Amino acid sequence: MKQLTTDFGNPIASNQNSLSAGELGPLLLQDYQLIEKLAHQNRERIPERAVHAKGSAAYGELVITEDISKYTKAKVFQKGEKTPLLLRFSTVAGEAGAADAERDVRGFAIKFYTKEGVWDLVGNNTPTFFLRDAYKFPDFIHTQKRNPKTHLRCANAAWDFWTLCPESLHQVTILMSDRGIPASYRNMNGYGSHTYSFINSNNERFWVKFHFKTKQGIKCLTNEEAEQIIAKDRESHQRDLYENIEKGNFPKWSVKIQILSEEQASKLEFNPFDLTKVWPHKIAPLIEVGEMILNKNPQNYFNEVEQAAFSPSNIVPGIGFSPDKMLQARIFSYPDAQRYRLGANYHQLPVNRAKSEVNTYNVAGAMNFGIGDNLVNGAYYEPNTLGGAVENEMYLEPDLVIKGNANRYKAVDNDYYTQPRNLFNIMPEDEKQRLFKNIAASMQGVKEEIINKALKHFELIHPDYANGVKKALCK
User: Fold this and answer.
1) Which positions make up the signal peptide (predicted)?
2) What is the pTM of this model?
């Protein structure tokens, strides 16, 4: 039998009864283990994520089977490379106690423990998003959360915002389609969503989008099916993922990319960095890269899932950013959220720590348990003459040509309707009917003038879209 101890390894004589002044007397402050247990319990919950609060995760591996070295020098993408990873799935709008089978966008965040450091790809199960400028992001999230007066979710706020920001129509159509409620995390695709850059060994830049195509097949739930599941199991997706991995039924995804040269991107009729739009496959066909597999469950949910911290700011040589305005803002906002939620040294937690060598001059701060070779050598600043870590200009990226004056530019591309129309046109008739029904259901309690604004937008996408929603609203 193992000896029960305090957090500092001191043996505990009794863990059943508090220390009191006599059998019926008051408790004593010197009962340090009672104080420790109560104080620790008060701190067992860290602030939940403002977005993507409810999540599940698993470990796995990325295996590169194709040669794409002409696009990137990143070691993680060289043929034959195998990279361990952690993939966290989540819902976006719900709190930590939300049901897994709710209609919502699903987060698809991957932490790759590469030989060149951690690379985080923070995506969703949709290739687009509601916004293209992060200036609107806090307001958008407010519409998805609880009304501060009623403390209830507010469909009126959601549709009011969407109808005033028609760039969201593409994502709204996806959300209200069959794919708005995946049957499980295993049965959905994942996307990097943003445009990133690849840098090859010749220091040439390419724009890239990442796709993860499920090998389990796409499976979705209707509203009625989801309601039946939620009534019995609010953790349906977590249960499905955990149990399948425990059985050895490891989920897999095909990894693909889309590539555009800088010249090709400059000639497009739409902004290739607009997160509300996709790159049509006829312009940028999918390129096979490899396979991703999940094969191990976390052993401690809090340590390995709740404390997992992702940020698109974590990149490796050969992978870079783009002028995508949403991505640019997330480069700051994601790590800042983790500094607030987990502390300044969240990167030292085992689930977040790089498996490659780390040399940094960031020191001190709460929960700092890293020593670092630099500090051992006495080098805690840079530049120094103490043999500390130094910069290496070989990792500089090629220049990104920037034109124009600093200003608060409105998007030039106001075509909010073509891509949603293209999506609507390829939907089978039965899915269109479910789309109409789902939208009508989501509009319960929404003001008539807001519904009418939405119908005008649907009319501009396609007359059949508007007519279908109208009929569904009348039922």
Assistant:
1) none
2) 0.94
